[in-house]
């Protein structure tokens, strides 16, 4: 296994202290990014290192050697607050002056306190009568890719890793994100719109936690991939089943319940951190840090 540490800024002093805490006197860090480092042949993370990195806002992970860009074949990702910076339904609700009410339900669902399908029905019902033009306004005024998203997807393409967005949000936005990033597949819910207004209902079966996992599994089988060749990335309780269906799951700036159950967690770096998390150890293309 390899230890990967990264952060918005890691100083030489921090790196030296981490090296000391690891008692890795005969090993040296390999720099794999501007603020990302790797150390091979690690088997455990000392509790004091966990505490130090938590205090210093540094992400660290003990990564299985199988989990690298050369081995992965499919990356499955959540959309809201993962690939994009917003929760689309909260922003739609803001057009109705209902953002606090809807956001409260969203947060409760992401913490796993309410079943996702029920939470979605409650939130969408609050949007009844809203003009569909509000959806276009959210795209035009508020929808932004999460920093590092393009770098991650570019790395996936370079390594022939298929990319799939599965969202409990709405296809109106998912299709736009798919086009922006050049993703292979996007699956999401459909809002019912009649006479240019939202009816407060969702069409068809709701894309909930199990549906996300089912889409992942179906695509994995179509591609002829093993489970260990799949990574799933998300931030809410609705992503946990999907993560369990993958070879590894990454909690991205996620709720505590997700961090506890995910294989890896990124709390401080942006999505480009995924590139370094899954970067194979390669001394020929990296710098050694003493």
TrEMBL record:
Reactions catalysed: O-phospho-D-serine + H2O = D-serine + phosphate; O-phospho-L-serine + H2O = L-serine + phosphate
Keyword Kinase: no
Cofactor(s) it depends on: Mg(2+)
Pathway entry: Amino-acid biosynthesis; L-serine biosynthesis; L-serine from 3-phospho-D-glycerate: step 3/3
Domain of life: Bacteria
Presence of the UniProt keyword ATP-binding in the record: no
EC numbers for this chain: 3.1.3.3
GO molecular function, one term: hydrolase activity
Keywords, sorted A to Z: Amino-acid biosynthesis, Hydrolase, Magnesium, Metal-binding, Serine biosynthesis
Pfam families linked to this entry: HAD (PF12710)
InterPro entries xref list: HAD-like_SerB, HAD-like_sf, HAD_sf, PSP
Family recorded in the similarity comment: Belongs to the HAD-like hydrolase superfamily. SerB family.
Protein name according to UniProt: Phosphoserine phosphatase
Species per Swiss-Prot/TrEMBL record: Methylobacillus methanolivorans
């Amino acid at each position: 296994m390899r230890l990967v540490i990264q952060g918005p800024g890691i100083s030489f002093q921090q790196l030296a202290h981490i090296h000391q805490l690891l008692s890795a006197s005969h090993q040296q860090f390999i720099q794999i990014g501007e603020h990302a480092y790797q150390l091979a042949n690690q088997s455990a993370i000392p509790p004091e290192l966990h505490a130090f990195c938590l205090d210093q806002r540094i992400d660290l992970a003990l990564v299985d050697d199988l989990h690298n860009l050369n081995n992965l074949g499919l990356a499955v990702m959540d959309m809201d607050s993962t690939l994009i910076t917003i929760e689309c339904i909260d922003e739609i609700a803001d057009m109705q002056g209902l953002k606090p009410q809807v956001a409260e339900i969203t947060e409760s669902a992401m913490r796993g306190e309410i079943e996702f399908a029920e939470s979605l029905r409650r939130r969408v019902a609050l949007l009844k009568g809203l003009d569909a033009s509000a959806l276009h306004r959210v795209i035009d005024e508020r929808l932004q890719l999460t920093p590092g998203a393009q770098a991650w997807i570019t790395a996936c393409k370079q390594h022939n890793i298929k990319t799939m967005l599965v969202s409990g949000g709405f296809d109106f936005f998912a299709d736009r994100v798919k086009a922006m990033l050049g993703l292979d597949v996007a699956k999401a819910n459909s809002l019912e719109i009649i006479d240019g207004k939202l009816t407060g209902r969702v069409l068809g079966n709701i894309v909930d936690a199990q549906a996300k996992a089912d889409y992942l599994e179906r695509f994995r089988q179509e591609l002829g991939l093993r489970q260990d060749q799949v990574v799933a990335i998300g931030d809410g309780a609705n992503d946990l089943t999907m993560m369990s269906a993958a070879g590894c799951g990454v909690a991205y700036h996620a709720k505590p319940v997700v961090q506890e159950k995910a294989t890896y967690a990124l709390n401080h770096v942006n999505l480009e951190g995924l590139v370094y998390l899954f970067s194979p150890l390669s001394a020929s293309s990296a710098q050694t840090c003493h």
